[in-house]
Amino acid sequence: MAGVKNSKVKDTRRSKSRATSHEDLDIDRQRPRGDLGHRLRIAREEKNIGLRELARRLGVSPSLISQIETGKTEPSINTLFAMVSELELSVNEIVFESEGEAGGPSGASKNGETGAARPRARVVAAGPAEPGSPVQHRSNRTSISLEAGVSWQRLTAQPDHNVDFLLLRYPPGSESTPPHSLMRHNGTEYGYILSGTLEVSIGFDKYVIGPGDSISFDCTQPHRFATVGDETVEAVWFVVGRRNTLSVEDAPAEASSVAP
Q1: Contacts with 131 (C-beta within 8 Å, 6 or more apart), sequence order
Q2: Cβ neighbourhood burial of 17 (10 Å; 0-12, 13-18, 19+)
Q3: How many helices (H) and strands (E) does the chain have?
Q4: Chain centre distance of CA 238
């Protein structure tokens, strides 16, 4: 009987441990959501745009904007690009910059005016960061989680407004936008696939690329990413010359020319 009791105690402890682990994971996922949502809310308020007005401009419900800003839901890439476009910001600026990086000390903006300091994006670090170092260690990359488990990790130690240098992760079944809603923005994209298979739509053309394949194209052409198969896609990605996002739009009525 004593053995049975001990077994029950051990099982109870295991159950509590598993529950605690799942709770910690949920909390950990909510932190980057809240940070991004808070950044978007601060940016919207700085532009003096009401929540309902922003929702009207984007063609979405006010409740969706509210849930994103409070960290209750992760935005899709489609919605994120639309929001930063309307707020006249770059994705790198709103997603990855920490306090002071956007405009110097004490939250000063680029034109020298002082505004509300923006919260830091979550940094998972094994040890203290090295201020001023050109090296970005794997253990403390700045990252953001989006809808359907998509994640972007910044591969530069410091933010660069002219170049996004990223590690992209797209789990099986994930996509950058819905099938009939492509996105476009300033700049040129360069990608190299490490693992998995990715379908890249550019205009009406589709390309399937796998490990060792690379691609480059003009970002002003409507484009979309989607995983193929049951393997997570990991890719090194550069976006050069993206200062402001142009728009997110429906699939074009006419075919676009494709950059080599």
Answers
A1: none
A2: exposed
A3: 5, 11
A4: 14
- Token pair 């094994």 is at which residue? 126
> Which residues are paired to 228 by β-bridges?
197
What residues contact residue 115 under an 8 Å CB cut-off, 6+ apart?
Answer: 46, 103, 107, 108, 109
* Three-class SS state of 242: coil
Instruction: Supply the angle between the helices 51-58 and 77-86 in degrees, to the nearest 10.
Output: 120
Distance CA 221, CA 131 (A): 38
At position 105, the amino acid (one-letter code) is P
Give me 140's structure tokens.
């403390």
Mean pLDDT, rounded, for 10-28: 44
The model's pLDDT over 218-260, given as tens digits with 9 standing for 90+, comes to: 988 999 999 999 999 999 999 887 655 444 444 444 333 333 2
Domain boundaries in the chain?
Answer: 2-250
Residues 90-134 have pLDDT tens digits of: 666 676 654 444 433 233 333 333 333 333 333 333 334 577 889
Which CATH fold would you assign to the domain 2-250?
A: Jelly Rolls (2.60.120)
Task: Write the CB contacts of 125 (distance below 8 Å, at least 6 apart in sequence).
Answer: 139, 140
